[in-house]
Each structure stands twice: as structure tokens, then as C-alpha cells.
Amino acid sequence: MIRGGLGLILTQVLAFCSARLVSNALGSEQYGRFGLALVFGVYSSQFIQWGLDPLVSRELARAGPEDSAEILAASLRQKQLASVFALLAGIAAALLWQHTDERLIVLLGVVDGIILSYTMPSAFDVRGRTPLYFLFTSGRQALYLISILVLLYVFSVRATPGLFLVLHACAIVPQIAAEWLWIRRSFGALNMKNAFAKGRQLWLDAAPIAIALCAWQVSIFLGPPMMEFFGRTSQLGELVVSNQLALAIFSLGLVPGRMIQVWLAALTPGSAQFRRAMLRYMLVFALAGAVMAFIADHFSEKIVTLFFGEQFRAAAPLFAIDVWRIVGAFSGLVLSGALICENRLRAYGACQVAALAAAIAVAVFAVPRFGAAGAVLAVVMSQCVFSSLALLLLLTHSSPQAIVAMRGDA
Q1: pLDDT at residue number 403
Q2: How many CA atoms, within 13 angstroms, populate the side-chain half-sphere of residue 96?
């Protein structure tokens, strides 16, 4: 866990160095457009991944060598098919986009997300090689950073959002190649014989997880699209900066959160011991989130100017609100793991959809009135709604599998 955490921190440091260069080269307005395009990349990537990676991780843990080659081939085939739909949707969105000067970067953002979707962290997790995966992601960020430095300061190329989107997408390609080379060496040659049929079954099995993850991704990146929709784009760059800083802090809990899910999975679902452990971990994570949020809130202006420079000082009041999302998000990591351990995937999806609905409702009311402040408030609210609903379900209802397990213990 320590090595994986260090790899994640290294990736974040390199990402912030790149973000500092890009944001200062573009300025607030253009950086907002760049961030908006990356949001569309996140949406397209999440659609293509469709919850396959968590499901593949579970299936690979149970499979033999031949089955593993078939599962990985099926996942790859399904991602290839979904990429076609994502690309067509991206082209349609670009053609219909209201602002003609943003059409190209919207399409480039979608393409960036399509490429990113071919990463396979689940294969590394199963083999206990998560640090190697983060080494590859660090290499990607380093390549992106170096390419920015060379083009801006060696060749003096004019900075545009499209240029940085192309560089970002190109930096992902070597990571994808390295990952799949490692996968072939670790799992053997892919068995593509029944990949289409197997991929279709994986897609259906992953649907509850996919709905939950898609709803979560849309909710945490809801701000920039809602700002664009309501025409409140004057603070779009500052909003993107605020979101990036808040998500960077949240990412510190991802590796411990994955470990907590493993520890919960070793307990009897729904038992008193399971619930005590879940509550203990949730309270610890929520308290850690509150401490981090309080510190970041207090030093918001210094943090913003340290990572993004003086020209983004106006993002500090937004970040001071936005950072409180991590309280709900940190506790949500534990609660999500608990729901998955109890195999309550539909309940997990329903909670995320309800959280998304709450975020949209708040954004529709607040963004036209308060602009970017309303956008960050909507995200904070969505994380609180998910954690509250998930905790209520876990404390008041047990899944059928958990009831059977508890009767067996009795």
C-alpha cells in the first residue's frame, strides 16, 4: 500500500507541474476551455470502461491462466466496440456545439478519454503489482510534462487548448503499450476466439457498477458543463483549478480505500463485526477528510497561488467550498466498499444516481444565481447525499446474501 501510495503521490506531483505550466500558458479563459474538454474526456472514458475494470479484477482473481486470457480479451473487445460509439457521440457533440471555436477541443477531449479508457489497473491489482501501474502513470505524466517544456520553451510553439490536448493524448499511448505488453507477459496471449460473446456478458454483468460509477463521475465533474450550459463561463478557469485541487486531495484516500474494501471483504457481510468495522473505518475516513478540508479551507489562497500562480487567486474562494466535498467522498469510499462487499450493487447504483440528481437540482438552482460557487456547492451536496443514503441503507437493511451468512454463523 505504501509503494502504491508513493506512486500515486508522484503521479499527482507531475500532474500539478504540468497543470501549472498549462494554466499559466493559456490563462484563465482558455484554461477553462481546456478543463471543459477534459471533462468530456472523463465522461467518454467512463462510458467505455463501463465498470469493467472492477468486474474484471474480481473475475481474474478467480480465473485460471486460460480463462484469464479470455476475460482480458473480452474486456478489450468490449472497450473497442464502446469506443466506436463514444467517437460517434463525440463527433455529433462537436458538430452541434454552440460555440464553433470550441468544437475541435470538445472532440479532442473525447478522443483523449477514449485512449485513456484502455488502461487496465485491474490486471495489476490482481497480480499485486499496483505500484508498477502507478509507475506507468508517472511515466505518462513525466512524458507529458517534458513535451510541454520542449514545445513551449525550446521551439516556442504558441499555446492553445488543442495543442495540450494532443500532447496529453499522445503521452497516454506509451503507457497503454507498456501495460498491454506486461499483460501479455503476465497472463499470456489473449484468446480472442469468443471475445465478442464474453465481452457482451461482461458488459451486462457490469451494468450496476457502471451506472454507479458513471453517475459518480458525472456528479463530481458536473460544474464545468453546467457553467457552459447556463452561459456563466467567466469563472470557468478558476472552477477547473478548484476541481483539480479538490480531486487531488481526494485521490490521497483511494489507495487506503481499496485496502479497506479488501479488509471488509474478509468479514461476514451484514454481521455485527462487519458493521462495527464499517462504522469505524467510515468515521476515521470522515474525520481525516474534515481535518484536510479545514486545513485546505484555511490556507486556500496560499494553496491556489502555490500550484497555479497569482493569476488564479480568484479560485481560492471556490476551493474553500469545493474542498469540503472530500468529507463525504472519503466516507463514501468506505460505504461504497461495504455495499459492494454485501453484493448490493443495485443499491450502490441507486445511491449514486440519487446523489447525481441532487447535484443537478442544486446546480440548476444555484449556478444561474451564484455562478461557479453554485457549481462547487452542488458537488459538495452530492457527496453528502450519497454518504447519507448509503449509511442509512447499510444500517437499516441487510442484503439476502448477508442474511444467509449471518444465519449460517448462528
Answers
A1: 46
A2: 6
